[in-house]
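Before the break, one more example. Copy the sequence into your notebook; we will annotate it together after we see the structure.
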Amino acid sequence: MEYELKDFLHYLTVERNLAKNTIISYERDLKKYAHYLRHVEQIQSWNDVTRLHIMQFLKFLKEKGNSPKTIARHIASIRSFHQFLLREKVAEQDPSVHIESPQMERTLPKVLSLEEVEALLEAPKTNTPIGVRDKAMLELLYATGMRVSELVNLNLSDVHLTMGFVRCYGKGKKERIVPVGSMALNALKVYLETARPKLINSKKRTTDALF
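Here is what the structure looks like once it is written out:
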């Protein structure tokens, strides 16, 4: 069993050209897996490994306190290894084919406090054109909740100051009409009237991009 494992690691190094740390991770996971199969399940050949053996190994990992993320990494290593064994005709079947990864815990994103938001909005130095631009960008992001990718793709024709809205395009180029609050509108107006012309002139080019 040790020979096949070394052969797989050689394959990852030479043919897949994976990073050293990635190969070390594979080696660590699979050596633990092979040790369990030999010493707990009394398996002597990779061809004798069944789905139940893999499930028992995953149960063993869980009982040892491994996180779902760590277990999912082990599953990925085991799948790749058994696919290799099948492809090289070392084994007649792939017992890992129907093994599912554990559901990962999704952590909620950190929400800024009101004080942190205010500090962020006041961070740009508005005595420079770039600072005025950054102030307008932050105010618009805060007022609308649009994605950064949507913000940087805005054109002048998408901004309607008198009507109080901007038109942006999300995933799949889906159009959205987004209302804009008075503070963000004011920041946009100042930017368009004072800072943007200077920034455009400094670059010696014309563009329809808002920012």
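The helical segments are 2-14, 20-39, 51-63, 68-87, 114-121, 129-144, 148-152, 182-203. Strands lie at 159-160, 165-169, 175-179. Try to locate both features in your own notes.
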